[in-house]
Amino acid sequence: MNHLPLILKREYLNKIRNKSFIIMTFLSPLLLVGIFTLVAYLSNINNDSVRTITILDESRLFVDQFEDTGSIHYKPLNDITLAEAKKLSEESEYYGFLYIPKTQTIDELANKITFYSEDSPSLTIMGDIQDAIEEKVNTEKLQEAGIDPKKIDQLRININTNLETYAGEETSKLGSGLKLIFGGAAGYLLFMFIIIYGNMIMRSVIEEKTSRIIEVIISSVKPIKLLLGKIFGTTLAGITQFVAWLILIGVFGLVVTSVLGIDPSTVQTPQQQMMEANGSGVEQIAAEVIREVTSLPITNLIIMFILFFIGGYLLYASLYAAVGAAVDSETDTQQFMMPILLPLILAVYVGFFTVIDNPHGTVSQVFSFIPFTSPVVMLMRIPFGVPIWQQIVSVIILFATFMGMVWFAAKIYRVGILMYGKKPSYKELVKWLKY
C-alpha cells in the first residue's frame, strides 16, 4: 500500500490546524499592513507641517530666488543684523535661518553662506537651497562674462544613449533596473521561504522523535516515504500560508484605505517629492516602466521561477529533515545548520554583488549550475537573458541533486529517528550512511 498520500495529508492537516500556524497566518499580514499604515500616517503628519526658514540676504541677489513649497515657507528678513536675525529665528522656533552676506565678488560669496538650525537640517531641504543658490550664482557669473544664460540653456544638449543587444532587442537603464528588482526579489523570496519552512520541517521531525510517535509510524512506513511525506506536506502548508498572506494583505490594505482613509501609497521618498516638484515627467516614466515590463520574457520567468523555487526548496528541505532526525532538541542543531546555510548565504552574496555587476561572467555562470546556489543565482540571471539550454541543464542538475539528497537524508533519517540520548557528530553521521 502506498502510504505517501496519507502521510502527506496528515502532515498538511496537522500544520494548517496548528494554533500557532493559524495565528501567524492572520497576524503576520495584519502586522505588515499595520506597519505600512503607521508609516503612511506619520509621513502624512510630517508632510502636513510647514517648515519656516528665515533668510537674511545682505547681497540682495537672491530676493526672488526662493519659492515656497507645500512643506517649506521662506520668510525674508530686512533691516536687521545677523545677531538679531539668529535670535529671532531661534526664539520663534523656526526650522532654520539662511544668512547670505554681502561680498565684493561672487567668488567670495561661494564659501561664506551659512545655514543655522537647532539640529542637522534635512538633506533634501539643503539640496534645494544649494541648487537655488548655485543657479543664481552661475547666472550672475555668466552675465559678468557677457554671456546670455538663456543662450547657454538653448545650446545645451542632453545625451540619451540607446541600448540594444546584438540580436536587435532594445533595452534601457530602467529595464536593467526592473530586471534587477525581479531577480533580487525572487532570490530573496526563496531564501526566506527555505529558512522559514525548512525550520518548520526540522521542528516537526524533532517533535515526533521526542514524543516517540515516530516509533509507531516507522513500523509500517518506509523512511524515505515518511521523509517525502513530511517535506511535501509542509511545502503545501507553506504555499497555503503564503497564498493566504497575499490575499489577507490585499484585504487588510483595502480596509485600511477605505475605512481609515490612509493610503500607504502616499509614502514618498525625497527623490519622489523632488520629481513631483520639478515636474520630471512622472507619467512618462510610468509609461516606460509598463513598456519595459511587457518586454520582459514573462512566460519564461514564471516557469523558471516555479521550477527553481520548488527544486531549491525541496533540496534544502530534505537536509533540514535529516538534521531534525539526527538530533534530540533544537539546541543540538546549531553545529549542522551552518554548513546548510552557508551555500544559501553565499548564493545571495554572489547574486547581489556579482550577478548584478556581470550576469554573464564566469563566476555567475558557475554558481548558476551548482545546485546549492543555482536556485538563487539563476533566478537573478534569467531576467538579463540566459540561454534556454543553460536553464534546462541547471534545472536537471538541481532536481537530480534533490533526489540524491533525499536518498542521503533518508539514510540519516532511518537511523536518526530511533537514536536517543546521544549527541551525533559528523563522524557518527558518516557511520549511519553505511548502515
TrEMBL record:
Residues 19-410 form the ABC-2 type transporter transmembrane domain. It is a multi-pass membrane protein. One of its GO terms (molecular function) is ABC-type transporter activity. It comes from the Bacteria. It is found in: Cell membrane. Keywords: Cell membrane, Membrane, Transmembrane, Transmembrane helix. Its main location: membrane. One of its GO terms (cellular component) is plasma membrane. Signal peptide: none annotated. The chain crosses the membrane at residues 21-42, 180-201, 239-262, 301-323, 335-356, 363-382, 388-410. InterPro entries: ABC-2_transporter_component (IPR051449), ABC2_TM (IPR013525). This is ABC transporter permease.
